[in-house]
Structure formats: structure tokens, C-alpha cells
Design brief:
Mean pLDDT: 84
Distance between the termini: 76 Å
Radius of gyration: 29 Å
Structural class: mainly alpha
Largest sheet: none
Oligomer: single chain
Strand content: under 5%
Number of strands: 0
Shape: elongated
Low-confidence stretches: none
């Protein structure tokens, strides 16, 4: 049993292919925008935290000795 691919099939195939490509591009752009927003927030937050301290934070009594495992 042999079937032929009709022009209607090719039209629907083209529509589905273009729709899938467009959805993939839109999803990729949305993911990139979210990642970029997160990175910018982290960078500005780290930059803001650095500006609030005037000197590096150092321990008052020096480094702690290692704790032995029990």
C-alpha cells in the first residue's frame, strides 16, 4: 500500500515547521533574557556589598585551629 504526499500535507508541514522554529527561538530569547537579568542583579548586588565595607573583614583573633574528627 503506497501513499502519496499531497500538497495539503506539505502546506501543513511547512506551517508546523515554521511554528516550531518560531517557538524555539522565542523560548531561547526568553531564557537568555532571564539569565541576563539574574546575572545583572547578582553583579549589582555584589558591587553594592563591596562599597558598603571600607576595609576587608578579618578575624579578630586570627584563624581558628582545625577541629579533630571524632
Amino acid at each position: 500500500m503506497q501513499t502519496t504526499l499531497t500538497p495539503e500535507f506539505w502546506r501543513l508541514f511547512a506551517v508546523l515547521l515554521v511554528t516550531a522554529v518560531a517557538a524555539t527561538v522565542v523560548a531561547g530569547l526568553a531564557a537568555d533574557a532571564c539569565i541576563l537579568r539574574i546575572r545583572r542583579r547578582r553583579a549589582s548586588r555584589q558591587h553594592r556589598d563591596r562599597r558598603t565595607t571600607s576595609r576587608p573583614v578579618t578575624p579578630r583573633y586570627g584563624p581558628r585551629p582545625p577541629v579533630p574528627h571524632r
